[in-house]
Amino acid sequence: MTFYLTTAIDYVNSRPHLGTAYEKVTADVIVRYRRLCGVSTHFLMGNDEHSQNVYQRAQELGLEPRVFCDQMEQVFREVWAKLDVSFDDFIRTTEERHRLAVTTLVQRIADAGDLYEGVYEGWYCVSCEAFKPDKDLVEGNCAIHQTAPEWIKEKNHFFRLSKYRDRLLQHFEAHPTFLQPDVRRNEMLRLLEGGLEDISVSRTGQSWGIPLPFDPSSVVYVWFDALINYIAGVGYGSDEERFRTWWPADVHLVGKDITRFHAVVWPAMLMSAGLPLPKCVFGHGWVNWEGQRMSKSRGTSVDPLEAADRLGPDPLRLYLVKAIAFGHDGDFTWERFEEHYNADLANNFGNLVNRVAVMAQKYRGGRLAPVQGAVSPLADRAADAVGRYTAAMAEHQLHVAMAAAFDLIDATNEFITRAEPWVLARTPDRSGELDQALFGMAEAVRIAAILLWPAMPASCTEILRRMGYVGPVSQIRFDRDTTWTHGERQIVTGPLLWPRIEDVGTSKSVVASTRRGVRASKGAGDTMTDETESGAAPPPQENGVVETTSNASTAPVTSTAATGAAAPQKNGAEGAAVDASAAPAEAPRVSFDDFMNIELRVAKVLAAEPIPKSKKLLKVTVDTGSGERTLVAGIARSYTPDTLVGRSVIIVANLEPAKLMGVESNGMMLAATDPEGRPVLLTLDDPAAAPAGSRVR
Ligand code: MSP
């Protein structure tokens, strides 16, 4: 079985931004999944070089266009390498194989009688590299680029696009999945129903481009040229056998702005040349910056290298695939990225991997085997997640597939909370139960790592290794290896994969270094884990979780976080003194006196307001019973200021003051953290009974 996927080829007049990178990353996730399924893939990406913008940029730099393109190829390749984009082939439109394909196809279209000479007169947007009818202009400017188009009048060769309108409509009707998602299909159907006009496919008076085989005074219009890369990349015009192996493409993945070229113009060109049509065009949405189109000139573009450097390529890839519904527009902000990182990776998956490895190590020296005949409740949860993941991937619902994988992670965390392996470990006659629990946890993590591997290849390869998988990932087969297995395995621990970020959303956001954290607590017991011996920090509990001793009468219920951003970060990777195995009973103890040194009091919210430029922080004025105070609290994602006024909350009253976003905070409000990482304030059961200032203990 083969699978041929292409992305749009990029204009090289500027570096890739996160929007262009989005397309390549999502393509890579699709292709990696197919490879896991044992399918032989051809993943083609490349650069679109015959654009006027590229030519102009080279001139500005005083370079030959080809030399400039050579330099830009390295820039693009560096970004794709950093993001772990595993294309099988990279094509440039200045390559000989591309010229051969363009010349051959254009000649075939001409031979079919579908080209004729005429005069084009109208607007042309150089940034779009497209002719613009008046209806596409806003106040005389290109609606997409907000720049003035050029007026062009020149002799051109035209392609009889209008001739293919009925055949295109029939094709759309006969192949409902030809153009996806439905919103794009409907747009295109409306366009086709309105009729098509012939299009100009050559430019005169330009040297930068591929000359028309029958009129060397003209070059092929850059879009007509660029689309042909999809067949040039698999040997059209140069290697017919290769072409027969790969063509037609299974998926052309492109942005929604260029769907028309791919779902109308390109199929018509192929029809004219008598070639099969691609099986599917998928028009993905845009990644916006705070709701606006990414644009370098407007300062709304994000450098993918910087984004990958901040938290790592895998967290960035996961964000793009999971946080944005594939096919729709999505937003990127540093704050959202960091929040997703903390919620999905630091607090959730990373924490789970670490807990499982450390518990396996601590209780069984890393050697795990299931109890004969016992069935883990997680086996059904895994099968369900795998089933939903597979169905979602088949429909290009990448975000749904990722969510299914995280359902399995959540189920495993819930299982640990219920199974309480640390309690089982203290009861010798429950040793079999402990074996079974540890094995189930590790097996579920192994399966989750395979599901997430296409999105986070490097991290999941490492997680698979820690969960005892010894072979190369290339030998994993999705169907076989995502079913529940029973083999004995050796689990290994390792440093934290994703340390928590403190101060999310502030300009100070930094990843807490694994070396900065304190060692795993002595409370972990007498047995020092690999983690502690290697000096790596233990994983933070969720937001500085303080889980209580878990015995029959005091089961841990939820995690508790201090949301006053002014709090010195004594929790998380910075200062956690919490055992990685998350054995609540063995968390480090504080003396009663130490506890009493922390002054918890009831306070009543008098006023609250947003803090400019912060999405997370609110400035809150409270009555502490002995006066008014200002706190800065990281709760804006859960509460609007007006919903806070009048509430009785619990504050840490004797914290040192600290300044955040220019506002001095004098205390910290307590809150639990929900599974999405959002704060949930601790309030009083009976506020009237305990007025502001009441001591909490
Ligand atoms: N060169 C043409 C494509 C020719 S394909 C035969 C082109 N190049 S581009 O560099 O402008 O865009 C490359 C791809 O990135 C396109 O699919 C485009 O839709 C996509 N994106 C550009 N900005 C984007 C976002 N902000 N978000 C998501 N995708 C974006 O068009």
Short recap of the structure:
The protein is of the alpha+beta class and 697 residues long. It has 23 helices and 32 strands. Strands 23, 24, 25, 26, 27, 30, 31 and 32 form an eight-stranded antiparallel sheet that branches.
Give an overview of the whole structure:
The protein is α+β, with helices and mostly antiparallel strands and 697 residues long. Helix content is 38%, strand content 19%. It contains 23 helices and 32 strands. The strands form 9 sheets. Strands 23, 24, 25, 26, 27, 30, 31 and 32 form an 8-stranded antiparallel β-sheet that branches. Strands 1, 2, 3, 4, 10, 15 and 16 form a 7-stranded parallel β-sheet that branches. It has a 4-stranded antiparallel β-sheet with strand order 6-5-9-11. Strand 21 and strand 22 (510-511) form a beta hairpin. Helix 2 crosses helix 3 (65-82) and helix 11 (304-311) crosses helix 12. The longest helix has 31 residues, at 334-364. The chain is globular. The model is unreliable at 507-588 (pLDDT under 50). The site of 5'-O-[(L-methionyl)-sulphamoyl]adenosine has 19 residues, from strand 2, helix 1, helix 7 and strand 15. Residues 8-11, 19-20, 22-23, 48, 226-227, 229, 254-255, 257-258, 286-287, 294 line the site of 5'-O-[(L-methionyl)-sulphamoyl]adenosine (MSP).
